[in-house]
Design brief:
Elements lengths: L2 H10 L7 H17 L6 E5 L2 E5 L1
Antiparallel strand pairs: 1-2
């Protein structure tokens, strides 16, 4: 995948809105998937250029 293709994918995957409820629902779906498939999760949250990483 070249840079232009990556930018196109990034633009396509942007949320028009993203509420706290959306975040909770997405997070719970990821947790359920990880548990069912014995996978680990890594979360990175960027707000105003601050980064919070946790396992």
């Amino acid at each position: 995948m070249n840079l232009q293709q990556l930018e196109n994918v990034e633009n396509e995957l942007q949320f028009e809105t993203f509420t706290n409820e959306d975040a909770l629902s997405l997070g719970m779906t990821l947790i359920d998937y990880a548990k069912e498939n014995n996978k680990a999760l890594l979360r990175e949250k960027n707000i105003n250029e601050a980064k919070d990483r946790s396992l």
